[in-house]
Amino acid sequence: MYSYEERLRAVKLYIKLGKRVQATIRELGYPTKNALKGWHREYERLQDLPIRSAPRTPKFSAAQKQVALEHYATHGRCISWTLRALGYPGRATLTAWVREAFPDTMTISNATYGPGNHSDAVKQAAVVGLYSRQESAQALAKKFGVSRPTLYAWKTQILGPEAPAMMKRKKSALHPELEELERQREALQRDIRELQIEHDLLKTASEMIKKELGGDLRNLSNREKAMLIVALKNRYKTPALLARLGLARSSYFYHRARMNLEDKYLPIRQAMKEAFESNHRCYGYRRLKAYMTRKSISISEKVVQRLMKQEALIVPKPKRRRYSSYLGEISPAPENIINREFQPAAPNEKWLTDITEFHIRAGKVYLSPIIDCFDGLVISWT
């Protein structure tokens, strides 16, 4: 209950401050928002306030109040536990009962009464400490014995709502040469990133697709490009890979969706690989088509060609030797030191060497041994 003077003072201050509820409560420390508005309506209607307000009927009986206080005193003096156990009253009501019944044991926090209980000097010192940031806001609030929101409320009260709690440090202007070096560094980083993407794309393409690209990723099909993006999307962003490969976004998602479909040619692919490898990798698409027909697998020659291309089943072809009329040039004959005397008296006196050419399927191979004439021992060869 508030006296007539307290209620009248609150209403006049409310009118003076332009009917701002929070400003009035912050200045006085009382009452509640609804009580202040009710006093103002009554003052406008009667041009005054009644000396004594009509007594309100208590919501809880004296017996309920006594039960709540006994439970609080006998169960560890915990307001939250009493509220959970009994289910009544509200926290503010029970706190008021406890303050009334146990005034010596109930500690009253300064933050309960809001910022109006401290002097202006204390508020200014707290706001200065908040701006200097030599300690955290929580530690500063604990130092002044208030809550953290109260500390910021003081800041708003003194400096206004637009003032920040901490001034941001502005970046000092760099020297023009430093700015140029910074731009060059960023450009080099972009170039390195682009080169790394290209390197990883070429490496992944050679490992997954096994196709000779000649350093140009544009030779890949859209499906193969989509496979590369799926393989590298965890390392690079998808838009960067799409731009580097020159692939449209819709094409990428189309082929990625088709990758999840079941391959109807999977058994045929396995059979073609086995037939190709078991026949020394010399079957072309016609013989593979005939092999599939013997296995009762109906498939067209064009499909066989496409599957062979996708699985890299390439038949090696011998290179054609071109005709050359060049017979060489006649050079001066070397001196005949041996003079057909191939029997030395001791080892390592006479060595002979020659070059022999062998023709194999992989190409030409040359052998050049060094032989000791004394016993025919091979000294070295290459």
TrEMBL record:
<dbReference type="InterPro" id="IPR025948">
    <property type="entry name" value="HTH-like_dom"/>
</dbReference>
<dbReference type="InterPro" id="IPR050900">
    <property type="entry name" value="Transposase_IS3/IS150/IS904"/>
</dbReference>
<keyword id="KW-0175">Coiled coil</keyword>
<dbReference type="GO" id="GO:0003677">
    <property type="term" value="F:DNA binding"/>
</dbReference>
<protein>
    <submittedName>
        <fullName>Transposase</fullName>
    </submittedName>
</protein>
<dbReference type="InterPro" id="IPR012337">
    <property type="entry name" value="RNaseH-like_sf"/>
</dbReference>
<dbReference type="GO" id="GO:0015074">
    <property type="term" value="P:DNA integration"/>
</dbReference>
<feature type="domain" description="Integrase catalytic">
    <location>
        <begin position="343"/>
        <end position="382"/>
    </location>
</feature>
<dbReference type="GO" id="GO:0006313">
    <property type="term" value="P:DNA transposition"/>
</dbReference>
<dbReference type="InterPro" id="IPR048020">
    <property type="entry name" value="Transpos_IS3"/>
</dbReference>
<dbReference type="Pfam" id="PF13276">
    <property type="entry name" value="HTH_21"/>
</dbReference>
<feature type="coiled-coil region">
    <location>
        <begin position="171"/>
        <end position="205"/>
    </location>
</feature>
<dbReference type="InterPro" id="IPR009057">
    <property type="entry name" value="Homeodomain-like_sf"/>
</dbReference>
<dbReference type="InterPro" id="IPR001584">
    <property type="entry name" value="Integrase_cat-core"/>
</dbReference>
<dbReference type="GO" id="GO:0004803">
    <property type="term" value="F:transposase activity"/>
</dbReference>
